[in-house]
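Protocol step 4 of 6.
Sequence for L-threonine 3-dehydrogenase (Streptomyces pseudovenezuelae) entered exactly as in the expression construct, tag removed. Do not edit the line below.
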Amino acid sequence: MKALVKEKAEPGLALVDVPEPAVGPGDVLIKVLRTGICGTDLHIRSWDGWAQQTISTPLVIGHEFVGEVVETGQGVTDIAVGARVSGEGHLVCGKCRNCLAGRRHLCRATVGLGVGRDGAFAQYVVLPASNVWVHRVPVDLDVAAIFDPFGNAVHTALSFPLVGEDVLITGAGPIGLMAAAVARHAGARSVMITDVSEERLELARKIGASLALNVSDASIADGQRELGLREGFDIGLEMSGRPEAMRDMIANMTHGGRIAMLGLPSEDFPVDWARIVTSMITIKGIYGREMYETWYAMSVLLEGGLDLTPVITGRYGYRDFEAAFADAASGRGGKVILDWTV
Ligand SMILES: [Zn+2]
Ligand SMILES: [Zn+2]
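Step 5 output, structure tokens:
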């Protein structure tokens, strides 16, 4: 089968023939239909410091996908051949304290699909049945391909109750955009989102942000005034990993404000801890998705009319992966999809 492989410890990816993955007991073999390109895949392609420390080659990359079940291993009774499925890309140990307590997203021994084991940018992928999410109601294939990052957005956006609240999102990449849509849908009073890309801010307006602010020429405080807020934002969703975004967010929260932080900073940086203490701000780190409460929420949010289609801005056949990766790396558009059936 064809697969996108990181062959050697150097920049780049190759589309090569590899053996189809073997189906062990409890496994599900999935024919991949479409995949989403994630920031993680861009790191692996460019072979940055994180990738050098994390990835062993050769590796089939990719973890965001939708596909069709073609075979089930021994003992799999609840997933049928032909089912349309996506996959939770974090494989957990099942034995640690958090796994045993049902808090699998807090597992200390998580292995990432397309990171710690062969992934989904291929014509076939194998996953344990416990990581397979069956789409029980029809979902747009492109949207189904990005359930993994949609889950990051839902997990972050719904970390704190936001009905009637004023929400600030720093970073209008695909996950920030999806979080804005979720916050709106879930009843926030206002959702302000910041970025430095006009293209991304335009997508944010399309998806329903109350105010999409370019922080290269306006401050978050300016945005607060424009929205008519008197005491600051109630909820902050940090999606950029950038020190200045986190600092500016902290400076613009109301007393008792709550921040969910998904953006991954690349290094240590100082913040105003005195302000966090005296404003009694809560900060919660978010990683992955709750298994499988977040997945349930994603499915029912879409059933309830949440529209994510404006977030998807690039569609390519898998042979055009170089163009697709360049598009995803541009930092201007939304989500980029690879079609594995063309
Ligand atoms: Zn991802
Ligand atoms: Zn565990």
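Step 6, annotate. The chain has two domains: 2-146+308-339, 154-285.
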